[in-house]
Amino acid sequence: MSAPTTMNADPSHDPRTGEQRGSVPHTSPERVSDILRRAQSAADRVASTSPATRLGWLTAVAEALAAHDEELVGIAREETGLGLDRLRGELAKCAASTLFYGTVAAEGSYLQAGTEGIGGDSTLSRWNIPVGPVAVFGASNFPFGFGVIGHDVASALAAGCPVIVKAHPAHPRLSVRLAEIVTGALAEAGAPAGSYALVVGFDAGLQLVDAAEVTAVAFTGSQGGGMALVDRAAARGVPVFAEMGTVNPVFVTTDAAARGQEIAAGFVGSFTLGAGQFCTKPGLLFAPAGAGIFDAVLAELAQVESAPLLTAGIAAGYRAGVARLAEAAAAAPAVTQAAQPAATRATASAVTQAAESAETPAEAAESGGYAVAPRAIRVRLDDLHPGSRLLEECFGPVALVCEYEDAEQALGALVRLQPSLVASVFTGGPGDPQSAEIVRRLLGRVGRVALNAWPTGVATSWSMQHGGPWPATSRSDATSVGAGALGRFVRPVAVQNAEPAHLPPALQPGNPWRIPRRINGKLTVPSATAPTATAPSE
């Protein structure tokens, strides 16, 4: 959660130049209170609508996003510095994922509806209900995918919850325009007033977390911001689904070393994608010694141009973080700068020099915006221990490479890392003798293992798990992407000895919502269920 940048407005800056392009006023406390009242008033009506109706709302939103794509991409480029192709692709995927979550709701299995006899004339019925108004804190790095609309917002609406979004200060103008489009689309589709709203400003966000009307919070961002929300909401017992991220590892098996050049190129492409501003960025590569992978990484990296980071603060944090990593690597026992290869010494020196300055927005405007150069740093296996600076996440295009002599020792290092969202394993192919054990060990530490694939691709699908143990997330039982994302915003209830009038349509005789149900322990599936859909990967 970002601190306020001015007393009463979020300024909009172009990361390519540092130039300010207007500002957006903060939402007043009185206006936030009104938005909360409207959300609370709408909650029962939103919850009681059929999942198929909510699919209609989200279809309207997806179509509206597509209809305004060039306008939205133009604003996003001015506020994020991300490329046009990246932004067009992200917006198209956002529209597709919005439709996907509506489809998941219409399919109905997320309700987990069931009824059974429990002896004599007694019955027990159980199903999931929406939790009520949800506060969503948009992310800086995915202005469409995790912003004013995107995975958190669409899955909460699909689950039957009103949503209040707090705009991220990295793209305030885009947030306002997106909110206008989403609000209009929902209204035209018949969604109740109060189903969706936007607030702007740090204090407005805190007011949401403290408000009695808010029943759950979703957040994507830094560990500091996420845990601040977790701690604040804990006073009311409100769950905070914070996706924060740590260092995502990559393990190259001995048999995969023959693919060293290919792996090095893929690694550089993945950790510099979007200027390294992905929570799924691979941050630490374990590679067999003697395969030449680190040198190949340096060669690939020399072809990658500097790119602007999202904000002046992120750029300054990157430079400072890279300096800490370089210092820790150079100061490690038996790895003095003199003992390192010339290429590594040059890299560490360049890293340190680049990290010594932290620019203000005005200074950045004079020096060409928030651009930074990508970096790779070689580290020793023995230096990857709890508390080491080498295990701190550095947001931006930097990654570590650790070349191992003994595969078992390298596997031991994996369990010393902080848990993370995702890990990649590159094998020599089917039957690789190391792969099964590596996957087994990793599954206790991450939410997803990608075999022979880079972690930066996240598919919006029925089987996706985008989460992980703390401190990667605040809730290891949840996912913020995929069909399971709706589960964050519902809770189970049960009624004993219910008459039909006491039950929701999900458990009414005749199954009017046409959803899967478990009756007396047996899963029953209607003959014609809602269509399924899969959105493209992120």
Describe the model.
By secondary structure, this protein is an alpha/beta fold. The chain contains 15 helices and 22 strands. Strands 14-15-11-10-16-17 form a 6-stranded parallel β-sheet, with helices on both faces. The longest helix has 24 residues, at 84-107. It starts with 8 loop residues before the first strand and ends with a strand. The relative contact order is 0.15.
Describe the protein's topology.
Blueprint: E1 9-13, E2 20-25, H1 29-48, H2 51-67, H3 69-80, H4 84-107, E3 114-117, E4 123-130, E5 134-137, H5 151-159, E6 163-166, H6 172-188, E7 196-199, H7 202-210, E8 216-220, H8 223-234, E9 240-243, E10 248-252, H9 260-271, E11 282-288, H10 293-301, E12 307-308, H11 312-331, H12 342-355, H13 361-367, E13 371-372, E14 375-379, E15 398-404, H14 407-414, E16 420-426, H15 435-443, E17 446-451, E18 459-460, E19 490-496, E20 517-519, E21 522-524, E22 535-537
